[in-house]
Amino acid sequence: MSGNSFGRLFIVTTFGESHGPALGAVIDGCPPGLPLTEADIQPDLDRRRPGTSRFTTQRQEADQVEILSGVFEGLTTGTPIGLLIRNTDQRSRDYAAIKDKFRPGHADYTYQQKFGLRDYRGGGRSSARETAARVAAGAVARKFLAGRGILIRGYLAQMGDITLSLNDWAAVHENPFFCADPARVPQLEALITQLRRDGDSVGARVNVIASGVPPGLGEPVFDRLDADIAHAMMGINAVKGVEIGAGFDVVTQKGSEHRDEISSAGFLSNRAGGILGGISSGQDIRVSLALKPTSSIRLPGRTVDLHGADTDIVTTGRHDPCVGIRAVPIAEAMLALVLMDHLLRQQAQNAGVASVTPIIPGAVDD
Amino acid sequence: MSGNSFGRLFIVTTFGESHGPALGAVIDGCPPGLPLTEADIQPDLDRRRPGTSRFTTQRQEADQVEILSGVFEGLTTGTPIGLLIRNTDQRSRDYAAIKDKFRPGHADYTYQQKFGLRDYRGGGRSSARETAARVAAGAVARKFLAGRGILIRGYLAQMGDITLSLNDWAAVHENPFFCADPARVPQLEALITQLRRDGDSVGARVNVIASGVPPGLGEPVFDRLDADIAHAMMGINAVKGVEIGAGFDVVTQKGSEHRDEISSAGFLSNRAGGILGGISSGQDIRVSLALKPTSSIRLPGRTVDLHGADTDIVTTGRHDPCVGIRAVPIAEAMLALVLMDHLLRQQAQNAGVASVTPIIPGAVDD
Amino acid sequence: MSGNSFGRLFIVTTFGESHGPALGAVIDGCPPGLPLTEADIQPDLDRRRPGTSRFTTQRQEADQVEILSGVFEGLTTGTPIGLLIRNTDQRSRDYAAIKDKFRPGHADYTYQQKFGLRDYRGGGRSSARETAARVAAGAVARKFLAGRGILIRGYLAQMGDITLSLNDWAAVHENPFFCADPARVPQLEALITQLRRDGDSVGARVNVIASGVPPGLGEPVFDRLDADIAHAMMGINAVKGVEIGAGFDVVTQKGSEHRDEISSAGFLSNRAGGILGGISSGQDIRVSLALKPTSSIRLPGRTVDLHGADTDIVTTGRHDPCVGIRAVPIAEAMLALVLMDHLLRQQAQNAGVASVTPIIPGAVDD
Amino acid sequence: MSGNSFGRLFIVTTFGESHGPALGAVIDGCPPGLPLTEADIQPDLDRRRPGTSRFTTQRQEADQVEILSGVFEGLTTGTPIGLLIRNTDQRSRDYAAIKDKFRPGHADYTYQQKFGLRDYRGGGRSSARETAARVAAGAVARKFLAGRGILIRGYLAQMGDITLSLNDWAAVHENPFFCADPARVPQLEALITQLRRDGDSVGARVNVIASGVPPGLGEPVFDRLDADIAHAMMGINAVKGVEIGAGFDVVTQKGSEHRDEISSAGFLSNRAGGILGGISSGQDIRVSLALKPTSSIRLPGRTVDLHGADTDIVTTGRHDPCVGIRAVPIAEAMLALVLMDHLLRQQAQNAGVASVTPIIPGAVDD
Question: Name one GO molecular function term (chains A, B, C, D) (predicted).
Fold first, then answer.
């Protein structure tokens, strides 16, 4: 119950199930005067949309967004922006066979235990389909942030054993894997093909970077920028790990090695990932996530039914062999929501009486 | 500004600077009727307290907690519990030399950029000393949870290159490193001694486990249990990475390998770390954090002063060579706060009309 | 910006403008297992709906609600309930004449000052039409509360100089004025007819009563039940005053006269209006509101235009001569939302260790 | 449980019981750089303080405030401001006689029903003594607002049948009644003397006015400025009614009579009380409250004991015969907290892209 809103000042509330009539989001707190039409939102939805390549789920959804409110004569009015996406290709019959069983590794079991009942069609609200609403809301934040010079970009950094470099940002939009290392795309294709054949799935790592972020965003102690990013990222379906900057590599680093030294020209490195003490430093913000392999696979597994009796399960619906791929636009959207919220919070502080002027230029080493 | 409260129903607000008059916390939302005295809180504070061994900072603080409100005749009343810890051993003169400079890797720079001024004495509120207030509040949550059979325990899992097993929970309290692998303690001592000699510091990994957690805690979509844990953990000073269950290992796992199969006797493994779809499954909750090496080290580093001019800096105050050590009770406290909050939230749902009964026993494989 | 959500655990977010594509609400926090269909909501919308009699606005709106999510096989699932109401009878041309002027007594001016732009069609989001979304959400809360024996009813207590008694609850649904004093209905009709002729409007008083409320709802200090009711009621368009129980009559009362004495059979009077110290006592909760006359009237008034130049204004659109009439179902809905939220909050406390048993039966004197 | 915090961006959390060790407040969200010492807060506490005249309770409390955090070198730092007020004159023995009985009209009964136990000494947290913490926090807000030209002032407008004019703001500080109608002070003295003799109490009306408030504060729909004021005021102990502007007089007003016409020189009247559509108009904000007579009186009354058995009660502790008197500084503090919060929220919006310029000068008719 509850928990479906995100943010303090730029508040996004999502609703909708995978196989219900519609998905949607309400954005409360968007500043007035932002030019906004459906055409600003649709491209991000299209990037996340299923059915666009043979490497993701074959469900066909147009994911057409309709703006229901909050925009007048092409400008946001400062009132809530209602966004609606109708579901069109629900094949609920796919789920009849598993309605009384729990897929291992899936939220089936915990939803049943929490709520006492569940919408078993496509996972209901636990489906990654819910993230379409987040992506739609994130597109609004991204448009606002772009006007402030803040750019948020993600890419697939690893799939299974295949590690992928950040060689070419432009390439990310030219393959269905959000891969910035175009020479590796055939390897990715081969792996997905093999997984489909095996009826199995695999995990992935996604990196997201925000550049142009001003220093000063983030609120110590609990609402730190890194804490809010971790909250946002761990809240994406299938994410099991989050890193900022050097991440888990810090465990073996010395202090003299980890710290980013500073010169009048800017920071000399960025192991911190752009955040110190929970507050943005002006350097690029660097985030990395680990996504588990989807649990909806064709290989049979042991499980129980609604009555706790032992049984086996096979999932034959349309699923992504690697949910990490389509997580790229979702992670971008969530990072945008966090930054948008903290930008507004920092603006509130600027009601203050202290004068804040930049001390050094932004990062030199990103 | 703001951001110093944690939780939705069990709300903890902390205040206080490292070198100000006092630290404290207000707990709003503790159920009435819980037996509570200072003696329930002091042991956790003593575990986090500085100056207890030569392997952590030499600052001497009694960290005596006083309950100011919310308890009557030995029982909580349901009203806010005010907790006060006076500072006693502030040696602010240590900081005169660095008041106009920014320690690389420290929050000095970002606080200055955010607020336009800062309490430079010991890092002010960015000091890990603030976490004493969290530990005090966490002790109240832990007492309540213990009454429900929920046990939260942490240990040091790695320091630099030294990896540490979970061999013996009892040993954790018998060495100053929260180490459950007692044979390795001499290695840890040697490493700290070397770091002190070098004027350097090192990172660490801490693991925290909650057992006895009922299924059903956590709120999809944004306030998922794992998302709230990530928020809590990334909000601890120096943390740069958070994992739930298999964490970043999922990147290379297959779906058939990662999923925890289920039998009528319980789950057959726990790679999920006790959370599926953001909701507790009844298995142990397993969390792992990476803590960076402290940035306050004696080795000189390049930085700038308040005016942006290039300079060098050396930090000679009393600091932990490995902040990860004392992070163990802090991580336990934060996990307790998350679970306490979600326990109350789930109780609110039980106002509902759906009947929720357990389907399988808890974990069998933990 | 923001501020369009209501509640802490049963959270209602509304969106939509008077002349935009649609209105709607998202309910986050409805317990699972509640039987719910559109037919549970539509009757309350029909009671608030415009165009049903010649005594309110002549705008014709079907106000058909669609449930977009959160219900599966006829039961709520514990996930957000999306509610959609399409606008159908927007006659925006009515507003062309006043788009650059501010109606005195209307939100035109303050919206313009706050946001720098505004949707001038029918007041945009400041229109009472927005309350349709609140009524829809309130209907869900009312259904849940009814299952707990909590009944919420309102009536028109005064229109202009015509004071109206609570003689007959059943009569409320049998006249277009929500009047429980049927003999006075012709007087009300005559007054409205006269106001239409004059192009003027008039204020009203509405009373709302909740019975069957258990003792113990409400959270001292700030989130008191009466404080939250005041917040809810003053947030209804046109409300300028709120009273609980004896209300402003307390100013001249003595303590010996005001206090409700108690016997083993229950309270002996109910001047408190069912709330003591911000917490429900188990007696009926009694609330009274004052609604100002609508500012959209045909009589010309002095005002300024967008550039601050003096001008006159006449409003010729379709408006209620007494907005207080249709406020009855809105006030009922808002009271339902407050009680629903506090019921869930109190349920969360019952995770506590204190045993709470009723001391006396409910009210005897209501 | 919970509910002891106020505000969204300028968040005040209070703690403490009437007869516990201390009261206090934590302010989270005060902008950095505000000059602040205890001397800024103490005068407001002294105005609310008991024992200063023979017309209020004879309890003697120094109410000395200590700033525990959030201020460095005389300036706020943007971190939480901890405020502590030790209790010194608790005479808990006064309460032994009534510990097992419920005072009619008092929160005794509802606290017991809510929490299952209660601190019966002086009402515990339901005591008006808790408001000292609010006044302390309000003083910080008032100082900030004063720097923006916003002035908040209250006065006693009625006590029992004695109505009091606003003749002279300066007089308010020169009598113990906060009376702006100095000729009436002897009447007030006589009434209090008579009430003390009779062992009875009486109600009161308090008016509070904020001037210098910029247009644009307040968030439609739910977090309207008037709704938040109503919430704040109804949350003050003993308040049973709240009015904005013309208040309940609107019930009999015509639209042509109520609306405040506008000219290029400003508004021509202020029946709205400075708020239209939930947003400040730039005119004076006018609020009026009704406070019930205190229920702690010497005249015996019927009640029940903890076991529900019939009994009588007499309250002999030290109490105010008219709690409305000392409510004046409390109401000022609460209005300051509301305005401070909305000022910061509006500042957040100014991150927006719409240009907002004032259209007319402020009020001309206040």
Answer: chorismate synthase activity
Question: What does the alpha-carbon distance between residue D23 and residue B183 come to, in Å, rounded to a whole number?
Answer: 49
Q: Is D29 within 8 Å of chain B by CB?
A: yes
Indicate the angle between helix axes D323-349 and C108-115, nearest 10 degrees. Answer: 60
With a CB-CB cutoff of 8 Å, which residues 308-337 of chain D face chain C?
A: 308-310
B85-to-B52, B130, C284, D350, D365 alpha-carbon distances in Å? 17, 10, 45, 39, 52
In CATH, what class is C95-349? alpha beta
Query: Residue A342 and residue A11: Cα distance in Å, rounded?
Result: 11
Amino acid at A105: G
From the list D13, D117, D124, the residue facing B28 with the nearest CB is: D13
What average pLDDT score do residues D333-346 get?
96
What's the confidence (pLDDT) of residue D360? 77
Tell whether domain B5-349 is in CATH 3.40.50.1000.
Answer: no
| Residue C207 to residue A338: CA distance in whole angstroms | 43
H helices, E strands: number in chain A: 7, 18
Residue A93 has pLDDT above 70, yes or no: no
pLDDT at B88: 87
Interface touch A75/C117, C-beta < 8 Å: yes
What gap in Å lies between CA D206 and CA D243, rounded to an integer? Answer: 11
The pair phi, psi for residue C95, each rounded to 5°, is -100, -5
Q: DSSP per residue over C95-153, as a string?
A: GGGGTTB--TTSTHHHHHHHHS----GGGGGGSGGGHHHHHHHHHHHHHHHHHTT-EEE
- The pLDDT of residue A364: 40
Give the whole-angstrom CA distance, residue A146 versus residue D353. Answer: 13
What is the b/e burial string over D341-360, where b = at least 16 CB atoms within 10 angstroms of the residue's CB? Answer: bbbbbbbbbbbbebebeebb
Residues 209-238 of A with CB under 8 A from B: 215-224, 226-235, 237
Coil, strand or helix at C249:
helix
Q: Are C243 and D240 in contact (CB under 8 A)?
A: yes
Computed over every residue of chain D, the mean pLDDT equals 91
Two tokens, residue C302: 């002095």
Query: HEC states along B239-266?
Result: EEEEEECCHHHHHHCEHHHHCCCEECCE
Whose CA is closest to B147, among B219, B224, B76? B76
Domain ranges, ordered by start, for chain C: 95-349
Residue C120 makes CB contacts below 8 A (sequence gap 6+) with C95, C98, C99, C108
Where does residue C143 fall: left (phi above 0), alpha (psi -120 to 50 degrees), or beta otherwise?
alpha
Number of C-beta neighbours around residue B88 at 10 A: 12
Helix, strand or coil, per DSSP, at residue A328: helix
Handedness of CA A76, D354, D364, D343 (dihedral sign): positive
Position B74 pLDDT exceeds 70: yes
**The pLDDT value given to residue A366:** 45
Task: Kindly state whether A112 is in contact with chain C, defined as any CB-CB distance less than 8 angstroms.
Answer: no
Q: What is the reported pLDDT for B97? A: 74
Nearest CA in chain B to D22: B68
Whether residue A89 has pLDDT greater than 90: no
The count of C-alpha atoms lying within 13 angstroms of the C-alpha of A24, restricted to the half-sphere facing its C-beta, is 31
Task: Identify all chain A residues contacting B325, using CB atoms and an 8 Å cutoff.
Answer: none
Bond prior to C221 in cis (omega within 30° of 0):
yes
Q: Which of B32, B343, B350 lies closest to C354 in CB terms?
A: B32
Model confidence, pTM: 0.96
